[in-house]
Amino acid sequence: MLTFMTVRELYEMACSGSTMETDQIEYAQLQGWVRTNRNNGSIGFIELNDGTYFRNAQLVYSSDLANFQDVSKYLTGTALTVTGKVVLTPQAKQPFELQVTEVILEGACDNSYPLQKKRHSFEYLREIGHLRPRSNTFNAVFRVRSVLAMAIHEFFQDQGFVYVNAPIITGNDAEGAGEVFTVTTREDGNYEEDFFGKKANLTVSGQLQAEAFAMAFRDVYTFGPTFRAENSNTTTHASEFWMVEPEIAFADLEDDMDLIEDMIKYCIQYVMDNCPEEMKFFNQFIDNTLLDRLNHVLNSEFVRMPYTEAIDHLLKATKKFENPVSWGMDLNTEHERYLCEEIVKGPVFLIDYPKDIKAFYMRINADGKTVAACDLLVPAVGELVGGSQREERLDVLQNRMKEMGVHEEGLQWYLDLRRYGGCQHAGFGLGFERFIMYVTGMQNIRDVIPFARTPKNLLF
Amino acid sequence: MLTFMTVRELYEMACSGSTMETDQIEYAQLQGWVRTNRNNGSIGFIELNDGTYFRNAQLVYSSDLANFQDVSKYLTGTALTVTGKVVLTPQAKQPFELQVTEVILEGACDNSYPLQKKRHSFEYLREIGHLRPRSNTFNAVFRVRSVLAMAIHEFFQDQGFVYVNAPIITGNDAEGAGEVFTVTTREDGNYEEDFFGKKANLTVSGQLQAEAFAMAFRDVYTFGPTFRAENSNTTTHASEFWMVEPEIAFADLEDDMDLIEDMIKYCIQYVMDNCPEEMKFFNQFIDNTLLDRLNHVLNSEFVRMPYTEAIDHLLKATKKFENPVSWGMDLNTEHERYLCEEIVKGPVFLIDYPKDIKAFYMRINADGKTVAACDLLVPAVGELVGGSQREERLDVLQNRMKEMGVHEEGLQWYLDLRRYGGCQHAGFGLGFERFIMYVTGMQNIRDVIPFARTPKNLLF
Per the record, GO CC terms (chains A, B) (predicted)? Predict the structure, then answer.
């Protein structure tokens, strides 16, 4: 019997150990792309990838094949439809092979194909971003990206969180969080005559709008693109990136940290369960401490440490830091990594940061000096998540805005959330790309975004 | 025993018929917002909504309560923490009530609260977009929006589709599909000196980039925001809206339509299963033909009809149309609705449209006049989905681009997809907001977007 199958299905069947199914599937038809093709004149081998699975199917063809001469010349990248007999090969490296009876050419590929069977640099592959998902590394990266996105949705939806699409075009700049892109239909900066009748920009955060929805649904989350017009060329900055911003009502900073810890663990476990081949690949070729590190996180209880205590540890450290340490400073990655890698030896929440280095909406602690903020620091990366309890007291919030030069105009709606049945609430922001980098070991944010946008770079 | 519970959990428990659980949960603590509060001096009733469930919990309190006088004055919108005894009331309208033993004020609300217990117009509620999710209608709309988004992710991920985040900022304008927003950090239109070193705009579609990923993963989908700078104030146009754009390799138009039909049915069923209270509400207060219509769709096989046959039906119609009918025209909503409501009496795919009214990437049929496109028309709405098989033949595609004035410059990467192992493939676009409108019966796109963006309108 002839069955249309995917490479994933064939692997699942071959590895299930069930012979019943394979008895029924004698002949299978596959469609995919040639990764390699070699032959000795009478017998040939094609590694075929069909995009459904990280590994390839091994096709064996012989000179019995009517179009053997043509088939033996198909180059890497060629698209084929192939029929053949499924033979289990439990002794071999791959669990099955397809003994080919028919090969149909779907799309040719000549030797100008930029993606040859050899190791290409990530820099080179960025220039052919439309082809790089066909390479092993990027195939693995972008499948993990997809699976991790699903993990996030499942984690929140299973607990009844409502998914909110915060607006992308906005008149607010949220937290004054750096430079923003203008959205316009004009070339003269006359925003009063512009499409929206005022200056519009791309959002830097959906948090404030998410807070409004948390006051209706209790638990909500955003998951969408955010933007920064920062002119910095580093491995961790992109102009366009996706953020997850949950917001929970009737909750304090402790609840917030519990949620963050649960989410991180759930998502890591989910990717390990659903992308075992990809994770093996990353551990072998990208970062051979990866699986140990992630397993360690799964089995750790995340420590919670006040900022003030962290500063004490840093001041006492024998290690020499590039940036000098003092209370009130914003920590650098070197400090963050020292704290989680050397002091805690695992993930750590720093809490209760000095108010002057944090945003206006964070709740002032009883000491008057610190805010109920938490940053999750993890080994090898540093900050992964930033969260806080939000200031729900109207008068305290208004004073704080005045202190920090945040204008009430345009934020009356945000203050309304405190005027009308406001309550304790908290939330956090997870940079999705940073999380992908953390889970895959990839070192450059350009390599975890399908088509990355950075200064002077707008390909595709 | 005292248990913290949500209103949803209490409803699920009370409606499950299991007395075992209720025996264990004698006392429950709830947190939420007052919807109504009335009393006769000795006994009072609060309808409390906590955002987890469409329906309210009924709280009963008496003058035995220490703060009875205060509680009896709490107005609509007030946030409370409430403890009480759970009593099943199978004879009453609501399946349980909470006999209150303690009420703690979390956040006050005075009578300036703009959302009083009365029917407000949708126009008015748009102006208080930060509060409207607390109203019945918008609470239902935005929960359905969230659940429908999850339905889409589950539908595709369960079949192994890879989720692709197509770029939001782009240098292409995809299909020349109308006016675009410019993204800039300047006010003088000097794009060479701009952030990206060239003119950048907000995407109108992620399809072209999705095609690149389909050539690596076989089956992919996008789900993200897209933008149009069209200066039109209608009930169906917004400047910012979310699109789902699947793309499948080794597939033709028939496969595409199968996928669309499966997706529509899966998502409708999913929302009916997961939002029964909300759907009942829409059917009662928004559109009393809604459930019948959706059930009809679930049980219909979607008809497939060539455009040319559809024109024949329209020409023969006794009904008078505002827009005259002739072969080659783009259909208007009146024609689309006539076809599905009067001729087919159910959902219908129109296929094989004249090439001159469709985009450059659609595959030319053997007749040389039409393209392998499909639009799904549904009763009461008209077009819900637009799809097509893509032109995979490089020379045909290049000719078509020349004919239609689409420049190859900047799209060489797209042509590469045909040069290097291209294959038959197809895809479609679903306007997410239009789908929400279809599933809820809501008539204005502004009422299904958390914070809608339209000309001269950029609140929140």
Answer: cytoplasm
Cβ of B246 under 8 Å from any chain A Cβ? no
Residue of chain A whose alpha carbon sits nearest to that of B106: A423
Residues B4, A218 contacting (CB under 8 angstroms): no
* Count, residues in chain B: 460
Minimal Cα–Cα distance from B98 to chain A, Å?
19
Spell A66-80 as b/e; 16+ CB within 10 A means b: eebeebbebbbbbbb
Question: Cβ of A240 and B168 within 8 Å?
Answer: yes
Whether chain B has a CB inside 8 Å of the CB on A270: the answer is no
Does A398 contact B at CB distance below 8 Å? no
Two structure tokens written together for B202 = 């907000």
Residue A45, chain B, CB below 8 Å: the answer is no
- Among chain B residues, the shortest Cα distance to A275 is held by B160
Do B196 and B171 touch, CB atoms closer than 8 A?
yes
Chain A nearest CA to B87, separation (Å) = 24
Classify the phi-psi angles of A99: left when phi > 0, otherwise alpha if psi is within -120 to 50, otherwise beta. Answer: beta
- Dist. CA A401–CA A301, nearest whole Å: 36
Per-residue model confidence as pLDDT tens digits over B406-453: 999 889 999 999 999 999 999 999 999 999 999 999 999 999 999 999
ipTM of this predicted complex?
0.97
Interface membership of B70 toward A (CB under 8 Å) = no
Tokens of B184: 């800039």
Place of tokens 């007052």: B34
At which residue do the structure tokens 């799964």 appear? A298
Nearest Cα neighbor of A242 from A268, A257, A229, A223 is A223
- Cα-flanking dihedrals φ and ψ of residue A124, to 5°? -60, -45
**Secondary structure element (H or E) that encloses residue A32, with its range:** strand A27-39
CA distance B330 to B294: 27
What is the Cα gyration radius of chain B? 27
B85 touches chain A (CB under 8 A): no
Q: At what angle do helices A276-285 and A253-274 cross, to 10 degrees?
A: 90
Interface test with A, best of B183, B390, B391 (most A CBs within 10 A): B183
Closest alpha carbon within chain B to A48: B216
Say whether residue A165 is in contact with chain B using an 8 A CB cutoff: yes
Class of domain A2-107: mainly beta
Q: Where do you find CATH 3.30.930.10 in chain B? A: 132-447
- Determine contact: A105 vs chain B, CB below 8 A: no
A274 → chain B, closest CA residue? B160
Write out pLDDT tens, residues A68-91.
999 999 999 999 999 999 999 988
- Is residue A313 within 8 Å of residue A339, measured between CB atoms? yes
Whether residues B79 and A145 touch (CB distance < 8 A) is answered with no
Say how far apart CA B150 and CA B427 lie, in whole Å: 20
In this structure, what token pair is assigned to residue A152?
Answer: 């996030």
Q: How many other CB atoms are there within 10 angstroms of residue A367's CB atom?
A: 10
CA A226 to chain centre: 13
Chain A nearest-CA residue for B154: A150
Give yes or no for residue B57 having a pLDDT over 80: yes
Rounded to two decimals, the pTM is 0.97
Q: Which residues of chain B does A114 touch, with a Cβ-Cβ cutoff of 8 Å?
A: 420
- What single letter denotes the amino acid at residue A8? R
Nearest to B14 by CA among B90, B84, B82: B90
Q: Binning pLDDT at 50, 70 and 90, where does residue B15 land?
A: confident
Question: Please, are residues A150 and B157 in contact by the beta-carbon 8 Å criterion?
Answer: yes
The reply to whether A453 touches chain B by the CB within 8 Å rule is: yes
Q: Which CATH class is domain B132-447?
A: alpha beta
Residues whose CB falls within 8 Å of the CB of residue B95, separated by 6 or more in sequence, listed in order: B11, B14, B15, B88, B89
Nearest to B421 among A77, A200, A224 (CB): A77
Using an 8 Å Cβ cutoff, are A149 and A223 in contact? yes
